[in-house]
Amino acid sequence: MIMLTDKEIVERLVKIGIKVLDDLKKGENPALNIPLRSLRNVYYDENTGLIKLKDSFQERYYFNIGQSKKFMQTILIADRIKWLVEQNKTLSIRQLFYTLKHTIPGFKENTFDSQDESDPIIEDIEVLINVLRENLNLFASSKGVLAGPMTIIDSGDEIDISKLGSAGYGVPGIVEPDVIKFKDCSADYVLVVEKDAVWARLNEDKYWKKNNCLLLTGKGQPSRAERRILRRLHNELKLPVYVFTDMDPWGYYIYSVYKQGSINLAYFSEKSGVPNAKFLGFKMSDVKNFEMPQDSFIKMGDQDYKRLKELSSYAWFQTKEWQKELKELKKFGNKIEQDALVMKGIEFAAKEYLPKKIENKDWI
Amino acid sequence: MIMLTDKEIVERLVKIGIKVLDDLKKGENPALNIPLRSLRNVYYDENTGLIKLKDSFQERYYFNIGQSKKFMQTILIADRIKWLVEQNKTLSIRQLFYTLKHTIPGFKENTFDSQDESDPIIEDIEVLINVLRENLNLFASSKGVLAGPMTIIDSGDEIDISKLGSAGYGVPGIVEPDVIKFKDCSADYVLVVEKDAVWARLNEDKYWKKNNCLLLTGKGQPSRAERRILRRLHNELKLPVYVFTDMDPWGYYIYSVYKQGSINLAYFSEKSGVPNAKFLGFKMSDVKNFEMPQDSFIKMGDQDYKRLKELSSYAWFQTKEWQKELKELKKFGNKIEQDALVMKGIEFAAKEYLPKKIENKDWI
């Protein structure tokens, strides 16, 4: 990904305003040409292994009763982002909303009534100028944690993330190279685990130390920051990525978000996906291979079957291996959570399951 | 608080089992005498300023059709906790559930069907042997972040939490003195902020550096770990505590949880409350004093009024100052979120609001 300088970002934003002004001067109806972000403008690119945006656009007009307010909001947000980038300050997307919410003088109308109005427009601007929100100094909450043999420079502070005890390195909301730099790293791979508690268990067992790897969790469905840092670890440090989730449609999908990206943020996938990521498990063949006790099984419910059906239809799950896995899970009719491995012994995941899986390349 | 050694904890657990065995040998019906944790067994202790448990108990009998299963579950969990403490390993409360869930041989009945059954029994055992879950090596997810001029020793790693960049120190699930030690700290006070985004904003503005304090957030309603670490910072390092939340009933309640404790975990309050904590704001007098723009007001809804009424009735909100605050808020009819301060300028909270409030002792 080409990183733009703040100056270049400001130029792109200013260009939007100048075009609007020019249109007005020429007596034309100013329009913004915004790439569509809905499902019908999304496709799976087999060459790159990523979910991408197609090239449909929507025109957003100034002189259009249905679009005029949104047009104004777009310009307001573009203007405020310009101000933010120039000041070199960051704001949460909620705070951005607050800085812009006001009553239009002489009217009873508010510029914005709720954050539901401003968040999608931030995404419009990301695709409009092809710059990630994170480079526009805007962040949302993150929640992930990372540990391993690595030194990170975060806002000028040098942090040895092998020495952060039980806490680990809390992945901040923005992990772009201007804020977060990778200094030294001797890890052989990155292990991503779905859940916080599994991360804590493996961290306590010093899994990453014994296996010389990085250990990351996004605490369930990852936010943008965990996806971005994983991508950077993979691309910049050439580290293989293994993902370990629950054996259920939700866990499989979390894996696919790290790998191919998500439907909702297709334009972000290109900048956050790791197409080479491997799915370690938990998977159907593990049930027998590791002799999982019947007491670890949880009956699948209607929602699980529904989600499983959706997954089976996604283009990025159309490989032979995945179709087999999904079919077998449906037939099996039970989920297994990754936490359940403690039933086999408290250090079973760290000492048996994970090392064997990786050694035997037992992944999808 | 008196810290028990692992040996003493094991002794208390073993005592439970021995009493049950003795009762059985004597031909008596074994019973566990468990302190009640419901609202009617909770009171506000004005002397200590903490929400506490009264002394009602419930008997849990072995030979009682309605209680027999729960009796068995209690013994199973006590046994498994003993095993955990002896091994010196930690588990999440979810993982504990998994290690115990199984089908009883010869029956179709499971020991536990869901975690909703095991979590309350963990709390029963906490009150039964008067030891915190955290000392029983059990944890739930935490989410808080801390930064400031301080060195923490976490599981043997020495961590300078003034050098953790934008990430800060992620408060781990267990912050008891055997895992987390406070080494050096030159801070003058602890500022607790309700929200993540406000924490990030203040961290970026180096608020804690300029004002020589610790900056903590529990990201909304705090989990046990943030409450425990705050209590330890206050008690062990004698640091004053200031809390900064939204101006709404939910923010006020969050403040009261840090200060007096919560109804649900009254027995935990004694070990986590900070009765001297001050409420900095956001509060009604700030609206005028800081000339908050009308656009920062959010109309209160039915749920807000309902919660406000509940708060007004709690014993720990019966001070003159609080009753005045709550009445004024009701009359005002608007909430103000702490994020809204950015409307007054991006660094307004860090450079104007907070320093002035603390200098003028403008708190409740």
How does this structure look, described?
- 2 copies of one chain form a homodimer.
- Chain A has a 6-stranded mixed β-sheet with strand order 10-7-13-12-14-15, sandwiched between helices.
- With 364 residues, chain A is α/β, with parallel strands linked by helices.
- Chain A has helices at residues 6-25, 68-87, 93-100, 115-129, 196-204, 207-210, 224-237, 249-259, 266-269, 284-289, 302-313, 320-332, 348-359; strands at 31-35, 42-45, 50-53, 57-61, 91-92, 138-139, 145-147, 150-154, 157-160, 169-170, 180-185, 190-193, 214-217, 241-244, 278-281, 298-299, 334-335.
- In chain A, 41% of the residues lie in helices and 17% in strands.
- Chain A is globular, with a radius of gyration of 23 Å.
- Chain A is built from 13 helices and 17 strands.
- The first copy, chain A, has 2 domains: 6-139, Winged helix-like DNA-binding domain superfamily/Winged helix DNA-binding domain (Arc Repressor Mutant, subunit A, Orthogonal Bundle), CATH 1.10.10.10; 145-359, Dna Topoisomerase Vi A Subunit, Chain: A, domain 2 (3-Layer(aba) Sandwich).
- In chain A, helix 1 (6-25) packs antiparallel against helix 2, helix 8 (249-259) runs parallel beside helix 11 and helix 11 runs antiparallel to helix 12.
- At the A-B interface, strand 5, helix 3, strand 8, strand 9 and strand 10 of A face strand 5, helix 3, strand 8, strand 9 and strand 10 of B.
